[in-house]
Amino acid sequence: MRIDVITLFPEFILEAAKVGVVGRAMERKLLDVQAHNPREDAEGVHRKVDDRPFGGGPGMVMMVEPIRRCIQRIRALADPAPVIYLSPQGPRLTQNKVEQLAKTPRFILLCGRYEGIDERLFERDIDEELSIGDYVLSGGELAAAVVIDAVGRLQEGALGDAESAAQDSFGNGLLDCPHYTRPPVDGYGDAVPDVLMSGNHREIAKWRLKQSLGRTWLRRPDLLQSRVLTPAEQKLLDEFRREYTSAP
Questions:
Q1: Which of 32, 115, 176, 233 is catalytic?
Q2: What does the alpha-carbon distance between residue 2 and residue 19 come to, in Å, rounded to a whole number?
Q3: Which of 13, 155, 208, 231 is the most buried (most CB within 10 A)?
Q4: In Å, what is the CA distance from 104 to each residue of 1, 2, 107, 174, 197?
Q5: pLDDT at site 160
Q6: Is 125 a catalytic residue?
Q7: Dist. CA 245–CA 208, nearest whole Å
């Protein structure tokens, strides 16, 4: 898969893509991340990419033509690709959306700066907007890094264990269960749950599902409202609730 990023700070994107799972995916040729500075497509000695907004007001607006030429240049490099503008006004990024993007051979991320981009780009050049949360950043680069990481780790072969992605929070519509590692008892005397030390994989799977259901009920009950539980899942959730409410 290939992800092209339009940004005034290409070095940030490229450095972020070298880290961890995404970096390994790049090394294994599972993922190709390229960054493009629209200043390269700007005219004039100063390669200007922004100007004052018509109608007045604070800040600067990124100009139409440098970004449009940059998009056209990237699209000419390979097959046509959708352009996604990273903006707090777009639909919020979800795991379902990440999984959809992970199956897309190629897409382009556009990082805004200043007060944003000229509105005319939305009419002809941008296919969709995407937000990573209801807050404002200085630019779209951090959001682009989030999308690249979330999508890159789902490329086949990127993770050491393919089941890791399936067990992640939101992978099945629920939050992930708790995880433990050595030592079995820590310095405060807190022990790993016995079931995880039992070697009974059926009971371990049951415990993990129960904890996943319970954690979702506690922390993100909205996720349960849109999920139809099986009778077995409902039974496990009821058990978790009883244990939770009766705990000292």
A1: 115
A2: 17
A3: 13
A4: 7, 9, 7, 24, 41
A5: 67
A6: no
A7: 19
Biggest CA-to-CA distance, the chain = 72
Predicted confidence (pLDDT) at residue 167 exceeds the cutoff of 70: no
Whether residues 50 and 90 fall in one domain: yes
Residue 164 lies in a domain: no
Q: Give the residue among 180, 213, 209 at the shortest CA–CA distance from 197.
A: 180
- The answer to the question of whether 176 is labelled as a binding residue is no
Tell me, yes or no, if 156 is annotated catalytic: no
Active-site residue flag, 215: no
pLDDT digits (tens, 9 = 90+) for 25-45: 999 999 999 999 999 999 988
Total domain count for the chain?
2
Task: Decide if 220 is catalytic.
Answer: no
How far is C-alpha 201 from the chain's CA centre?
31
pTM of the model: 0.87
112 is in an annotated binding site: yes
Q: What are phi and psi of 128, to 5 degrees?
A: -160, 165
pLDDT digit string, tens, across residues 104-141: 999 999 999 989 999 999 999 999 999 999 999 999 99
Q: Of the residues 10, 88, 113, 125, which is catalytic?
A: 88
59 belongs to an annotated ligand binding site: no
* CATH number of the structural domain spanning residue 228: 1.10.1270.20
User: Would you say residue 65 has pLDDT above 80?
Assistant: yes
Which residues contact residue 196 at a Cβ distance below 8 angstroms, ignoring those fewer than 6 apart?
180, 204, 207
26 is in which domain, residue-wise? 2-152
Tell me if 49 is assigned to a ligand binding site. no
| Cβ atoms within 10 Å, residue 153 | 20
